[in-house]
Write a structure and sequence with these properties.
- The structure is a homodimer.
- By secondary structure, chain A is an alpha/beta fold.
- In chain A, about 40% of the residues lie in helices and about 15% in strands.
- In chain A, the strands form six sheets. A six-stranded antiparallel β-sheet of chain A has the order 15-14-1-5-3-21, with helices on one face.
- Chain A is elongated and about 85 Å long.
- At the A-B interface, helix 2, helix 4, helix 6, helix 7 and helix 8 of A face helix 2, helix 4, helix 6, helix 7 and helix 8 of B.
Amino acid sequence: MENGDAAGIRGATNPMVTPLLTDLYQFTMAYAYWKAGKHLERAVFDLYFRKNPFGGEYTVFAGLEECIRLIANFKFKEEEISFLRSVMPTSEDGFFDYLRSINCSDVEVYAISEGSVVFPKVPLMRVEGPVAVVQLLETPFVNLVNYASLVTTNASRHRFVAGKSKTLLEFGLRRAQGPDGGMSASKYCYIGGFDATSNAAAGRLFGIPLRGTHSHAFVSSFMSPDQVVVSGLSSQDGSSTCEDFVALVRSWLSKLQMVESLRGIFGETNQSELAAFISYASAFPNNFLALVDTYDVMRSGVPNFCAVALALNDLGYKASGIRLDSGDLAYLSVEARKFFRAIEKVFGVPGFGTMVITASNDLNEETLDALNKQGHEVDAFGIGTYLVTCYTQAALGCVFKLVEINNQPRIKLSEDVTKVSIPCKKRCYRLYGREGYPLVDIMARENESPPKVGERVLCRHPFIESKRAYVVPQHVEELLKCYWPGNSSKAREELPSLNKIRARCIQQLEQMRPDHMRRLNPTPYKVSVSAKLYDFIHYLWLNEAPVGELQ
Amino acid sequence: MENGDAAGIRGATNPMVTPLLTDLYQFTMAYAYWKAGKHLERAVFDLYFRKNPFGGEYTVFAGLEECIRLIANFKFKEEEISFLRSVMPTSEDGFFDYLRSINCSDVEVYAISEGSVVFPKVPLMRVEGPVAVVQLLETPFVNLVNYASLVTTNASRHRFVAGKSKTLLEFGLRRAQGPDGGMSASKYCYIGGFDATSNAAAGRLFGIPLRGTHSHAFVSSFMSPDQVVVSGLSSQDGSSTCEDFVALVRSWLSKLQMVESLRGIFGETNQSELAAFISYASAFPNNFLALVDTYDVMRSGVPNFCAVALALNDLGYKASGIRLDSGDLAYLSVEARKFFRAIEKVFGVPGFGTMVITASNDLNEETLDALNKQGHEVDAFGIGTYLVTCYTQAALGCVFKLVEINNQPRIKLSEDVTKVSIPCKKRCYRLYGREGYPLVDIMARENESPPKVGERVLCRHPFIESKRAYVVPQHVEELLKCYWPGNSSKAREELPSLNKIRARCIQQLEQMRPDHMRRLNPTPYKVSVSAKLYDFIHYLWLNEAPVGELQ
C-alpha cells in the first residue's frame, strides 16, 4: 500500500466512488468463488471497447486516474459490510471477514497513458489479481472509463472542427447528467482540448480556467437607465474619475447614430438593455463582455455594447467583446464585425475591430461545420448540451473480459464475431512509420519478444485470415504501462497532472495521419495481432467448448 | 432556517452539490447586482421545459428533493469564498462579505409534487427571492431537475411498454455517465416504476431492492466439474446432507437426456458451465438463478440449469430461474419455457414450468415493443445503457426564466414563439373531467380567483388566439405547493419518502387518458392560460421594448 501513499493518490476526488459502487452480482460471485475456494485464483481481465464513437475512427482514453484512485483507497467500511450482510443473509460470516480484509495490494493494473488516442479491441487497461477482487472492480472501472473517454473524444472532435485558433468554452453544467456528470464533463472536455469552463466548482477542484459574464435574465432585470447609479468610475490608471458614466455612454450612443457608415442599422436602442450593460461594465470595467441578443442584436445589442465600450475606452479600459446566443450566428457575427471595424476606422480606436465575438446556442460538431462553410467571424464558442451529454452517442460501451485465469487463457465466443474476446495476457505495441505517423497497433502474447525497429513484423487481423501485412516500424511504443504494481517489483508510472494529460491528448491527436481524423469517411486505423497470437486464438476457437479441457 | 432542521433535510445526499456548483456568470452577475445596489430586489423565476422528451406527450417531474436539500444546506465555506476572490480579483471585499452572509432563508420555492406527470411551459418550480441569490440557484436546479426528470420519464416509458406484470431491473451503473450518473439513474428509474437495481451503493443509500447473480466471466472462470468441491450440501429443512451434490446433478443430467419430449435438443453439455452452475447453486441454494448463454442456450445452458435445479429440488430448494443475455430473446424464452414445462410434466415438479426467465442485452423501448409483437416468455427485463443514458434524447432542456422583478412582470421574447416566456408570478391548476382524467392545465395570474368545480373556465392557448375552449372541471388541483417558505408564513409541504414519490408517479401515470400515453402518435395534453393572463401576455408583447417602461 506504500505505492498509494508515495504517489499522494489517497483520497478519491469523488466521494461517491466507494467499493460499494458496483453491481450486486460482483458480490454474489465473490461469495460463490469464496465458497468454492476459488477466490484467490489469479485472473487477468482486459478493459476495452468494440467500436469508435460518433461515426469516427478514433477514441481518446480517459478516466485512468480515477480508477487508480479507487484502488488506492479500496477498503470496505464496517457499515458497508453490515449492509452487504443484510442483502446476502444466507452467506457465511467468514466471507464478510474476507471482504473486510480486501485491499488492492495484490492487484496489478497496466494501462495505456491517459489522454492517448486509442482504438477498438486493444486493451485500455489490463487488470490482474485475485478473481473475486478484480471482478469487484469491473463495474466502477467501466463506469469511470466509459463516460470519461466518450466526452473527451467528443471534445476533441469539437476542437477538430472548430480549428486550433478558436477559443472553446464548455458551458454544459446545467444540461449535464447530474452534478457529477457536470464535474466530469468539465474535466474531460478540458483534457480533450477545450480552453475553459463555466463550472465554478470544476474550476476550483481541477484548476480549469473559468469563463462567464451574464445572462438574459440580467438584462431583463433592468428597467431603464434612470435606475443605474454609477457613483463615479475611476479611469484605468486611477488618474481621474468619471462622475457621470451614464452621460458619457449616452454621448457615445449619439455619436454612433451620426456615423455615416452605420446609418440605417439602428435607431432608438433598448434602454433597459443599455442600463444592464452600463451596470455590468461598471462592475467589470477591465473585462466587459456583453450578451447582445436579448432584444435585437444589430438594432440594439451591438450599438449599446459599442457605446459602453467606447466610454470605457475613454477611461483607458479595453472592452472584451460580445456574446451571441440566438439567431443566425454566421450572419450576425459578420455584421457585428463590420460594425466594430467601422468604429475602429471612424473613431481611430485601435483593436476595436478585432473585439472577441463569442457564440453559443445549441452548438455541436455539425453546426460548427456549417458555420465554417457559411463563413463567420466568431472567435470563441460556448458549447453545452450536445457536448456534455454526448447527444449523438450517449455511451461508449466498454467491456471487461476475462482473458486468463490460473495461467489458462480464456476466450469468450459469440455468434457475432465483433463480440469474440481476444484471449491471453497480452502486451500491446504501436508501430510508427517513417513519417512519424502511427501505422498499426499490434497485440502479442506476453512471452513473445517485442517488435523491433527496422525489422519486419507480420500484423494479422485477429479474425480474418486474409487480412495481414508486414510492417517495418521506425519506432515501437509499448502501450500498456504499469500504473499499479501490486506485489510485483515493477516500477509504477506516475499519474500526470491534468495539464500534462491534456497536453498528451493534444499531441497525440496532432500526430495521427489526417485521413483517420477527418469527419467524413475517415480511414479506419488498423488493429492487429501477432502471428503467434493469431494462431493461438484460432486454436482455441476451433476447439471451443469446453475450452478448459484444451489446457 | 428552522424549516430545514424540522424537516430533517440538512445534509445533502450528494457531496458534490455545493453552492459553488454553478456557472461562473451567476457570480459575476451577483457582483454586478451588488455593485448596482440591485442584489436584494425580489425576483421570481420559473423553471420549466419546452418539449416532452422521447417523442412522447408527457414528462415525469423529479429532482425536487435534491433542490430543496441544496437550499436547506446553502452556505459558502471560507475556502470557497477565497477561491471566488481569486477568480474575481478586482471585486470589492464587501461583495465577499455579502456572499458569506447568503443562505436561503429569504427564498421561497413553490413546486409541483415530485413524481407528478407534467407538461411543457407549466412551471415545475417557481423560485422567489433576492435576485442575486435566486440566480445562483439557476444552474444547480436545472442540473438537478433535468436528468432526474428525463430518466424518470424514460423509466416510466419502459414500464409502459413492458406492462405491469413484468419485473423491471435497472442494470445501468457501468454505462451511466459517471458514478453519480449511475446513482441518480438507479434512484430515478425506481421512481419511474422499475422494481430493483444492480447498483449496490444505490441499494444502500436509497433503500432500493437489489438484484444480481453472476456474469459470463464467472462461467468462463471454471474449467471442469472436477474442480468443484462441494463439501456436503444440507437440505433446505436441515434434516439431511447431500454428500455428493455433483453426482446428484450428473444423475439428473442423465435422466434429462432420456426424456422423450426433450430428445434432440441437447447432447453433451458444456462441463465448465455445469461446474459454474453447481458452484453458484452451492453458494445460493435458495436463490439459484443462472446465466445460460455463455456457450449455447438450448444445447447447454438450459439443460445444465435444469439438472442443477432438479438436484436442488431433491433437497427441498426451489430454483429461481435463468437469464438470457444474447441471441433471439423471444425465440429462446419460448423454447426455454417449453423445456421447463416438459420437466414439470415428466417429473411432476410443481412450479418448474413457471420458472422466472430474465432477459437482458441492449434492451430499450423499441426492443421491448418488438418482443411483445413477436410473443415471448420473459418475466423480467434487465435494462442498462439505453435506459440510464437516455440514448434517444440525452437532455430535457429545462430553462429558468425571470418572470417578475420588484413586482414588475417580465417577458422574454424570441422570434421562435416556442421560446417566448410566460410572464408574471403565476398559479397553476390541473382541471379534471367527469371520468377522472386530467383535461387541461391552466396558468393564471397570482391574484386571480382559482377555477371552481362545476363552473366553466375559459382556457386559452398562450400564443394562438383561435385556440380556446371552455372547460367545466369536476375537480381542480392546484399544482404549485410551497416546499420552502422562506420568511413567509406559509406551511411547508413535507418531502415524501422515495417510495411515496414512486407511488405517486405510478398513480399519476395510470390516471392519464390513454391516448396521451400511447407510444405511436400520442395526443398532446393541453396547456393553457386564463383569459386575463392571455390578455396581459399580449399587452406586454405588443408593447415590447423596453417592457419596463410599460409598468
